[in-house]
Design brief:
alpha+beta; 3-stranded antiparallel β-sheet; 2 helices; 33% helix; elongated
């Protein structure tokens, strides 16, 4: 599955995925997308391990920023 640009008015979803795509003789393209296909981050690397690393790093950063922006997730009122 390849990521596509999402349209206006997309609903926020909780699932993201890292897509690695082989580019002829040039290396690997990575993309972080949601279920609707909206691209949140993308890049290009020479090797597959590097593309996998950078894609997963971008996904981690995206998720950590969403956690830090949620005031209810950061508080511990039990």
């Amino acid at each position: 599955m390849a990521c596509e640009t999402g349209g206006a008015g997309t609903k926020p979803v909780g699932m993201f995925e890292v897509i690695l795509t082989r580019r002829k003789r040039f290396g690997w393209r990575w993309q972080v997308c949601d279920q609707s296909g909206k691209i949140f981050a993308d890049g290009f690397e020479r090797t597959r391990p590097a593309a996998k690393y950078h894609g997963e790093r971008a996904l981690f950063f995206l998720l950590s920023q969403a956690y830090l922006r949620n005031p209810f997730a950061a508080s511990s009122k039990d």
